Amino acid sequence: MRTLSLLGAFMAITLVWLPLSLNATEINQTQDLVQWDNLVFEIEDSKCRVGIASVKLSVSALVPENGNLVGEYSIVVPLMKSKNDKGRIVLPLDSNVNDLGNNGGVLRGKAISYKEGKTPNNIICEVLPLKNKTILLEITTDDRTLEFKSSYTVAEAEAKI
Predict the structure, then answer these.
(1) Are 42 and 155 in contact (CB under 8 A)?
(2) pTM above 0.90?
(3) Kindly report the CA angle at 25 between 155 and 61, in degrees rounded to 5?
């Protein structure tokens, strides 16, 4: 009988402790993402070659939004203006800025064109550790995969007025 009551007490303590530990984990993950609130991820303009043509990529500052890094992109193809594109980049964020900057990482998301009827393109963003300040962007379009290499900085966001 005493063994059963000790077992019951242990189970009650375990059941009370288990949800608390899960909540603490969720809180820590939320706090990690909150660290992005005051920071933006800035990527320098870059270009790549497709045959004889140069393709230029510009990306606005990537800012945290609902667990994603979000920004705008512009692709300019000087020899084929019909291939120019503008849109929105959405990269799901599963780590905080310190981890991404110190250890690097790979973010996989979408480049969503503002042109009507275009399907979103896959984008892979490989961030090399902060000491290298290098970022590799791979955008897969209907025609081909564009590979850009650029530099990045992590900066404080300008105050919103």
Answers:
(1) yes
(2) no
(3) 20
CB-based burial, 115-154: b 16+ in 10 Å, e otherwise: eeeeeebebbbebbebeeeebebbbebeeeebbbebebeb
Name the token pair of 91. 């990269």
* Residue range 72-108, pLDDT digits in tens: 999 999 888 988 999 999 999 877 666 776 788 899 9
Give pLDDT tens digits for 56-74.
999 999 888 888 889 999 9
Helix (H) / strand (E) containing 23: helix 2-34
Q: Which one, of 18, 82, 20, lies nearest residue 53 by Cα?
A: 82
Token pair belonging to 106: 């790979």
Domains of the chain by start residue, with CATH: 39-156 (2.40.128)
Long-range pairs for 64-73: beta carbons < 8 A, 24 or more residues apart:
64/33, 64/36, 64/37, 64/39, 64/93, 67/33, 67/92, 67/93, 68/92, 68/93, 68/109, 69/36, 69/41, 69/93, 69/107, 69/109, 71/41, 73/111
Q: How far apart are the first and last CA of the chain?
A: 67
